[in-house]
Amino acid sequence: MRSRSSFAIVTNNGCVSNMTEPIPALEVHDLDAWYGHTQALRKISLAIVEQRITAIIGPSGCGKSTFIRCLNRINDLIGGFRVAGRVLFQGQDLYAPDVDPIEIRLRIGMVFQKPNPFPKSIYDNVAYGPRLCGLKDPVRLDLLVEESLKKAALWDEVKDKLRRSALALSGGQQQRLCIARALAVEPEVLLLDEPCSALDPIATARIEDLLLDLKKNYTMVIVTHNMQQAARVSDSTAFFMLGQLVEFGPTSRIFTNPLEKVTEDYITGRFG
Amino acid sequence: MKLAAADLRHMLRLRRGTEFVFKFVAVAALLIALGSLATLLIDAFLDGAGRLSWQFLTSFPSRRPEEAGILSSLVGTVYLILLTALVAFPVGVGAAIYLEEYAASRWYSRLIEVNIANLAGVPSIIYGLLGLELFVRALGLERSLLAGALTMALLVLPIIIISSREAMRTVPPSIREASCALGASRWQTIWHQVLPLALPGILTGSILAFSRAIGEAAPLITIGALTYIAFLPDGLLAPFTALPIQIFNWVSRPQKGFHANAAGAILVLLVVLLLMNALAVFLRHRHQQRLRL
Ligand SMILES: Nc1ncnc2c1ncn2[C@@H]1O[C@H](COP(=O)(O)OP(=O)(O)OP(=O)(O)O)[C@@H](O)[C@H]1O
Ligand SMILES: [Mg+2]
Fold first, then answer.
1. Pocket (CB within 6 angstroms of ligand 1)
2. In whole angstroms, what is the distance from residue A132 CA to residue A134 CA?
3. In this predicted complex, what is the ipTM?
4. B7 and B61 both lie in a single domain
5. Which phi and psi (to 5°) does residue A33 adopt?
6. Do both B93 and B201 map to the same domain?
7. Using an 8 Å Cβ cutoff, are B220 and B151 in contact?
8. Hey, of A102, A124, A163, A167, which one would you mutate to test binding to chain B, going by the most B CBs within 10 A of its CB?
9. How far apart are CA B239 and CA B221, in angstroms?
10. Could you say which ligand is closest to the alpha carbon of residue A34?
11. A23-267: what fold?
12. What is the pLDDT along chain A (272 residues), one digit of tens a residue?
């Protein structure tokens, strides 16, 4: 299911190797999206490379959330939402009629902009996905929950209160719980919508370390308002504005040598 | 805007005046409502408390008021409401799930919603007529417990559907999204997230609907439930009576003794209602505790 290519092992420092062609996990072609009659995305085309982190930046309301919510078809839940164009996941169009959105969401996990833990215990939150897939063995569930919480850098804080309500956690802890919950179903791609917007700098640093660590096994797309964060963790950066993709390229180039004037203005904070 | 001190004082006095008037009207309205309720209770208590005894609860109706009791009607009411709940709760919640979760954005969903709201306001005697035609005559159930329960189920269905939909609507979309994003199917999301969160609201609404049904006499009289029954119903198709019918029957007798019996039966009915409402409060409270863990 998961195709691992040799080039991925060569590049673990965040630089795109120019030795081999990077393999796209997701290819977006001419994606349009509408909420009712208002168009939120216009002709977006870009490729998200396997085992890399792609950052999406842009001013508020420009369609970043809409874009990544198209990548696992979670926007199907919104009444009146409509897309046109193609999103290829390992060559298969996500929006083809014979595709099961449930399978897509199992393989492409998501962490939402606002922390949204279930009103259940911490343990049940993390075990929710695996249980839905039929995992019942308590020993394996325990292991999986522990492993996922460790990956999300939350284990030490909650290991003594796994049966307590997830709603009693702080906002930042809740967000890391949501990350752990998404990791527990072992997706191939992880979509993160401003995962650090509710976090303090220490927790943010831990999440960033986590992302860099996860990169060995996961393809990630992260929406962020934090330019430094995009520069620190991502390999490629896409700059969105007013529902359009203004510029897309390697993060190092976007941040040092943007082609478009608006990109430069936005990155340097002269926007507006 | 700047006001002179005198103007300001005048304006404030005016405001305090109107506030006093509104408060007075509100308190008066409350007193009228509570007062008439209290009068009813006290009256029933004075008349009926003397009749409350073990004998009253365990005797069948009789021609002699002092020997008569409510056994058959009390048991009939309990059976009737349990059977009604058994039918109306799953059907009502099921309909609400379909309308809210599967058809929410369809045009006919809104049409049905308006119609259900109207149905909730239809007089209960109309449901009685429907029950008479449909269950008693067309389906040949006669004047049985089952016919009564099905008629009552029709009566409470709109209320159950409306309150269940409202309860499900309070579940935030972010919870549904979180569940779907973890690969849950629509039904898994409903079963594991939406229903547990909506359950207290669904239960409260349903129990209140059932307690309304408990007090209904009109539909049962319409379908022809008997007033004099000296045995307990022994099956779904057995004839039955219920407390409101017994009360109605006793009140319409000329003898004083039967009026006391009616008051006693009213007190029993009130106790049953209070118990059901207490159950609703208890269920809601316990559920909230569980969510907090
Ligand atoms: N559920 C919705 N229904 C209707 N319109 C929506 C909905 N969600 C988003 N929009 C609209 O789509 C546009 C893009 O919104 P989106 O949430 O994708 O922005 P964003 O880039 O994520 O912003 P932010 O940085 O503030 O999160 C906005 O104009 C917004 O008003
Ligand atoms: Mg957003």
1. A 35, 40, 60-66, 78, 113
2. 5
3. 0.85
4. no
5. -145, 140
6. yes
7. yes
8. A102
9. 13
10. 1
11. Rossmann fold (3.40.50)
12. 444 443 333 334 444 444 456 778 899 999 999 999 999 999 999 999 988 999 999 999 999 999 999 999 999 888 889 999 999 998 899 999 999 999 999 999 999 988 999 999 999 999 999 999 988 899 999 999 999 999 888 899 999 999 999 999 988 889 899 999 999 999 999 999 998 887 788 888 888 888 898 888 889 999 999 898 999 999 999 999 999 999 999 999 999 988 888 888 888 887 65
